[in-house]
Amino acid sequence: EPEVTQTPSHQVTQMGQEVILRCVPISNHLYFYWYRQILGQKVEFLVSFYNNEISEKSEIFDDQFSVERPDGSNFTLKIRSTKLEDSAMYFCASSGKAGKYFGPGTRLLVL
Amino acid sequence: AQSVSQHNHHVILSEAASLELGCNYSYGGTVNLFWYVQYPGQHLQLLLKYFSGDPLVKGIKGFEAEFIKSKFSFNLRKPSVQWSDTAEYFCAVSPLLFINDYKLSFGAGTTVTVRA
């Protein structure tokens, strides 16, 4: 069965550093998303992406965040200057006719 | 905006017991409904979904859910749980805006612990 993949599985970074989280969505899906889950809290929507542009973003998705689909397969989330409160599990997802499928997540720890 | 509430934070059962997890949502329009499961150390997996049609949907691993529109509910059930069902279960709702575009609002999750 096709699946969404994410790299890296874990990332530790210093506050103020830039991080790029990578995702490979399911190949025939057209909608891509990033969600995050801070430890002990709900899974929260960050951003959706369609047709090479952001279709919707949440209040969390401020100027420090950006997304890109640099080629035909990858979908990236960049955090320009990480803060302690960015520590969370970041999930990529893609959706098609059969529904929405999540990747395994990247656990980001900002020190 | 839509919101989702899950009634139970933590449920503890014995193997072979029946499971029912409550989920209610608030949204004025048509919705798609989902249950996801997250096994310890693993990612979110789609258990089942409701888009339209028969309000009783069957998913993987013997789970089913019933959409009751009048109650804004989408409860998850399994008649006989196994130890391997120990996981966190999330109800999620997406407004029916565009085909194949599902912006999910998640409930807080219910941790299910099944004792052998």
If you compute it from the alpha carbons, what radius of gyration of chain A comes out, rounded to the nearest whole angstrom? Answer: 13 Å
> What class, by secondary structure content of chain B?
mainly beta
According to DSSP, the number of beta strands of chain A is: 11
The N- to C-terminal Cα distance of chain B equals 41 Å
Low-confidence stretches of chain B: none
Oligomerization status of the protein chains: heterodimer
The CATH H-level superfamily of chain B is Immunoglobulins
CATH superfamily of chain A: Immunoglobulins
Largest interface: A-B, 24 and 21 residues
N to C succession of SSEs of chain B: EEEEEEEEEEEE
Task: Report the top-level CATH class of chain A.
Answer: Mainly Beta
Helix content of chain B: under 10%
Main sheet overview of chain A: 7 strands, mixed
CATH overall fold name of chain B: Immunoglobulin-like
Count of helical regions of chain A: 0
> Rough shape of chain A?
globular
Low-confidence stretches of chain A: none
